[in-house]
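Late entry, written up from scratch paper. The run itself happened at the end of the previous shift, but nothing got recorded in the book at the time, so transcribing now.
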Amino acid sequence: MPLRIPKFLRRGHPVPTPDGAASSYTVGSTDPGSINPSDPAITQPPASTDPTNASQDSSTLRPTTDTLLEDSRFRVLVVGKSGVGKSSVINAVFGVDNLTRTSNELSTQHDIDRPLTSDDNHRLILHDSQGFLGGDIKNLKTVQEFIKRKGAERELKDRLHAIWLCCEIPVSGGRVFERGDEILLRDNTNKGILIGSLETVPIIVVFTKYDQLVIQKKFSLAESLADDRVEWERQAKESATEAVKVSCEKPLNAAAGNRHTWTEVSTKDEYKDTIERLINLTNELYPRVGRH
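Output as recorded:
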C-alpha cells in the first residue's frame, strides 16, 4: 500500500468513486498554474499548524513559505537514468498509483516542460527528465536550461522547489553515476543547483533498489546463519548499509565533495522506512526553498 499523499499537497479529502475506478491523471503542455487557492474544493492547511513539528510526522511534507502554502503548489524535477526506478519512487512517496504511466507512454518525447498532475493531487507537479546516457550530455543541457528558466520565474509557485537525482545502487561493481550525473552534481553551490543570485534548488541523491543489495548480502550469509532468520536479516541489512557507503557515498563525495544529501531507498513494502526517510530529508531541505 503506497504511503498517503503529504497533507499540504492533498486536494481536500477525495472520496473513492462508487464504481471503484482509479482516478485519472493528465499530462498537459500547459502548466496547471491557474488553480485558484480560494476554490472550496482545495483544502487549506489549518492556521494552527506548527511547522516546527513537521518532522514529527514522516508523511507530512512541510512547505517552506506562506506563499507556497497559499498557492498550494510543489514542483519537483526528477532526474535519473532510464530503469533506475524513479517512477516507482514517485508513486511510493506520493501515494498516487500510476502517476507516471503517462510519462512512460510519452517516453519518446521526453518533454521536460510537460507537467505531470493527478486528479487526486492538483497541488503536486512533477517534471520527469530523460536519463543521462554514457557520454551524451545533450539531455544534461536540457535539464540545466530548465532549472535556470524555472529559477527566473517571478512567482514562487512557478519555480522549481527540489531535485531528486535517482541512481541505482550497483550490485555487481557497476558504475553508480553517469557522466551527466557527475556534471550536475558539481554544477552547484554548497546548498544546491545555482539558478540565480537569490536562491538555489536543493538536491537529494536517491540511491534506488536497496532491496536487491540486501538480497545479495543474504545469499552470502545463507549458510552461516540459515537457522537464525532474525540475525540473518539483521546482518544482511548491516552489510548492505556498509556496502552503500563504499559503492555510493564514496563516489558521490569524489564527484562533488561532501555537500549533497543522499539516502538509499526501496519501494518494496518491507522497506517503507526508507521512503519515509526520503520524505524527512526533503522536509529538512525546505528552508532553502524560496529564501530571499
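Residues 1-72, 101-109 have pLDDT under 50 and may be disordered.
(Scratch paper discarded after transcription.)
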